[in-house]
């Protein structure tokens, strides 16, 4: 068996390294989002719980919760989530592979779930309300009538998901 001289093998390996590193660099990663300044809005279901949202919408979120409570509706849910949490949600809803997490269309996940770096939750601008699983729920009906007043819009395919953009 003929082997190339050591120097040639070393040169071949050295010339292949940039290709190997380039391929590794092509692995998808979540975009880095600017740091979000958050604040808490106390839930009306249990005052020991709160919804964490961007500081820019905390006042309107507090007003929305107070108005819902005045109308006899108690609300709570999940707001801001960091990139690691969004990745965990994608794994749970879309699958564990790199494709599932970073490339699979949101509509192919159950339930539909935004790709890391694209979720309004990562910006603190979305809330998933716990008691709004269907469009027939009291929560959804109240929000459909009132949320716009407080700057929130519904993502039509998800009765529980309300954000500043509707996305």
Can you identify the CATH class of one domain?
Alpha Beta
Query: Are there runs of 5+ residues with pLDDT below 50, and where?
Result: 8-14, 16-25
Our measurement of the CA-to-CA distance between the termini, rounded to an integer number of angstroms, reads 63 Å
Instruction: Please tell me the overall pLDDT.
Output: 87
Give the strand order of the largest sheet, numbering strands 1, 2, ... along the chain: 3-4-6-5
Residues in helices, as a percent range: 25-40%
Beta strand count: 6
Q: Any key phrases for this structure?
A:
two-stranded antiparallel sheet; alpha+beta; 167 residues; Muramoyl-pentapeptide Carboxypeptidase, domain 2; 5 helices; single chain
What features would you describe in this structure?
With 167 residues, the chain is α+β, with helices and mostly antiparallel strands. It has a domain at 38-81 and 119-163: Muramoyl-pentapeptide Carboxypeptidase, domain 2 (2-Layer Sandwich). It is 37% helix and 15% strand. The chain has 5 helices and 6 strands, in the order αββαβααβαββ. It has helices spanning 6-25, 55-70, 83-94, 98-102, 138-146, and strands spanning 38-42, 50-54, 77-78, 126-129, 153-155, 158-163. Strands 3-4-6-5 form a 4-stranded antiparallel beta sheet, covered by helices on one side. Strands 1-2 form a two-stranded antiparallel sheet. A hairpin with a 7-residue loop joins strand 1 (38-42) and strand 2 (50-54). The protein is globular, with a radius of gyration of 23 Å. Residues 8-14 and 16-25 have low confidence and may be disordered.
């Amino acid at each position: 068996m003929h082997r190339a001289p050591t120097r040639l093998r070393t040169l071949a390996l050295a010339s292949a390294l940039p290709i190997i590193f380039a391929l590794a660099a092509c692995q998808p990663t979540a975009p880095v989002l600017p740091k979000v300044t958050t604040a808490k809005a106390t839930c009306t279901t249990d005052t020991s719980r709160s919804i964490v949202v961007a500081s820019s919408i905390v006042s309107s979120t507090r007003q929305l919760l107070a108005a819902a409570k005045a109308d006899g509706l108690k609300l709570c849910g999940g707001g801001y989530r960091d990139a690691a949490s969004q990745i965990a949600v994608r794994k749970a809803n879309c699958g564990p592979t790199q494709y599932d997490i970073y490339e699979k269309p949101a509509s192919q996940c159950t339930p539909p779930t935004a790709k890391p770096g694209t979720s309004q939750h990562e910006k603190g601008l979305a809330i998933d309300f716990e008691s709004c699983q269907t469009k027939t729920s009291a929560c959804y009906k109240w929000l459909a009538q009132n949320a716009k007043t407080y700057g929130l819009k519904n993502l039509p395919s998800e009765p529980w998901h309300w954000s500043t953009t509707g996305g």
